[in-house]
Specification:
The protein is an alpha+beta fold. It has helices at 9-12, 17-28, 34-39, 45-49, 129-141, 159-164, 188-193, 275-286, 289-298, 313-336, 351-364, 380-390, 404-422; strands spanning 53-64, 74-76, 81-93, 99-108, 147-152, 170-175, 199-204, 216-229, 242-251, 263-268. Strands 1, 2, 3, 4, 5, 6, 7, 8, 9 and 10 form a ten-stranded mixed β-sheet that branches.
Length: 429
Amino acid sequence: MVVRGTSCIRRLGDGDGSQTKRFRRFLANDKVSIERLIEGWAEHTGAAAAGRHVLAIQDTSEIRFRRGHRRGLGEIGKGNSHGALLHAMLAVDADSAECLGLVGGDVWTRPGRVTVPHAKRALEDKESKRWLQTAERAKTVLSPAAMVTVMADSESDIYAEWASLPAANFHLLSRVMKDRRLATGGLLYDALTALPAVETKVLVLPRRSSDPNLQFATVELRFTKVCICRPNNGMLRHLSKSVVLSLVEVFEPNPPARLERIHWRLLTTHDVADAATAWRIVNWYKRRWIIEQFFRVLKTQGFQIEDSQIDSADVLLKLIAVAAKAAAITIQLLQARDGHGALAAAAAFDSSHIQALAAINARYEAKTVRQKNPHPHASMAWAAWIIARLGGWDGYPSSRPPGPITFKHGLDHFHAIAIGWNLRDVSSP
């Protein structure tokens, strides 16, 4: 999938009917389970995380299948479409933002509508249990890391997480979902309203707008210590009555016209004693964009998993699990374009592909130093440079870096070249 840039079984088989059947039989085999496929997500992640501070970023995405009938899939969204859900956690270096691989997660479809109100269900009967289960998985997979910070958007602001997950060098960072009661009296939001801004700073937010002039936000910073109360829910009585956390707020007082105001309220188990630490928390939260990019690569800007026409829900779920791993490797390929990290090309390409890449590289490298591949041979960065050139990038350092679409085109082109490369020694009759 990584090399061919698609999740289409027919295209993965490259027109070879027997190869296509092999892929289909693999996915349809009862011994190939979603659980084992997901277990394989983290095969190299723990080793890559060794000695680092890792941001374990998790999120859930709905996958709407556009074609065909319902295929045994449950409702998603507001019940007006059918599909599956993917919950994934990516390991990212806190300092360099290098994607280290997938940690864990889940792929599922809803069997039917739940009639019991959300508040009256135990955590193990809710989909939100995956936030805690995946975080617990991170404790095992990322045990070689020096520190882990599990990070997510507001859906992960669950009291059971704050009360049960933190441990030595294992922290949480989440955007606030609701105004909570404080043990000291009052509500969470009120604790910030009375505070003056500590500092004002300009944040760079490239994904905020396609207009370069609108990618900057002048924001105010506030932070304080809070003690949040356990919700009045009988099912949570086994948890501590309160939890002490740090609260960091980023607020844009004068947003540009037509753009949504930046207003982040962030809760974390990290101790925030000064403005420098608070800004560091904010910068870590900005890294959350990487998992959004991961979902885009899986769907619209890469593997187009939602266009799959497979007619079995069980097979579709397995295909999503495989495509998720491929999307994570593609993110690593995208990041490698700048030469960051030390990932080897062998993580995405086999030996014959690397030989083909070397041959292509020899042709692309011009005599001028500015157009030579600047990365170590057989590294992921080296391969990314070649694939980007195949996708239409000119190779000049001053040019805009290649994006997902450029890499998609480059991978499509490389696939065609690789077929010829593998046939180079075949003699005609």
